[in-house]
Design goal:
This protein has one domain: Roll (SH3 type barrels). Helix content is about 20%, strand content about 40%. It contains one helix and five strands. Strand 1 and strand 2 form a beta hairpin. It is globular.
C-alpha cells in the first residue's frame, strides 16, 4: 500500500507537465486534464497527477502528518 501526500502545484509547463511542491522537495508530474492550475493541491502517482483535492483537505492532511511526527 502506498501513502500519497498532497503537493501544491507551483508551475505549469507548456509540455503538459507541472512542478509540484512537497515542502521538502519539488517534483515534476504530467497533467492529463485542463482543470489543474497553479496553487491547486494534487495527488500524484507514478509521476502523473491523478486527482485534485480541496485546499482545506490538503492542509488538514499535511498538518496531521506534522503533528504526528
Amino acid at each position: 500500500m502506498c501513502l500519497s501526500i498532497p503537493g501544491k502545484v507551483i508551475e505549469i509547463k507548456k509540455d503538459g507537465s507541472c512542478v509540484v511542491d512537497y515542502e521538502a522537495e519539488k517534483r515534476t508530474a504530467t497533467i492529463f486534464t485542463d482543470d489543474i492550475k497553479v496553487g491547486d493541491y494534487v495527488i500524484v502517482s507514478a509521476k502523473v497527477v491523478v486527482m485534485k483535492i480541496p485546499k482545506d483537505q490538503a492542509l488538514d492532511y499535511l498538518n496531521a502528518i506534522k503533528d504526528y511526527s
